[in-house]
Design goal:
The chain is mainly beta. It has no helices and eleven strands.
Length: 122
């Protein structure tokens, strides 16, 4: 499956932004999907994930209560709604997919989007 992330931009602290990740292929519903982010000089870190079956979600503590992941299997798209953005959320955001259940480590994902830059000014 090929993934394409979009929706990044420059916003102010406290603003909201919604990222999208569109997938090609007819088996999108068979993939657990996740969002990761990577700031300059830092390792790629887990943001959140959504299961393929019961649409359960899981979030990193740093974004819990502010970010929401959802998916529309009919549109082959997963979303990341980001509210109350903080300067420390500034990163390149990547969507990722894997067959089976969701995981929290980058190497456990087989498919990656190209990344979209999110910059939050103070």
């Amino acid at each position: 499956v090929q993934l394409q992330a979009s929706g990044g931009g420059l916003v102010q602290a406290g603003d909201s932004l919604r990222l999208s990740c569109a997938a090609n292929g007819r088996t999108f519903s068979g993939y657990a999907m996740a969002w990761f982010r990577q700031a300059p000089g830092k390792e790629r870190e887990f943001v959140g994930a959504i299961s393929r079956v019961d649409i359960s979600t899981y979030y990193a503590d740093s974004v819990k209560g502010r970010f929401t992941i959802s998916r529309d299997n009919a549109r082959n798209t997963v979303y990341l709604q980001m509210n109350s953005l903080k300067p420390e959320d500034t990163s390149v955001y990547y969507c990722a997919g894997r067959v089976g259940g969701y995981r929290t480590r980058p190497h456990e994902y087989d498919y990656w989007g190209q990344g979209t830059q999110v910059t939050v000014s103070s």
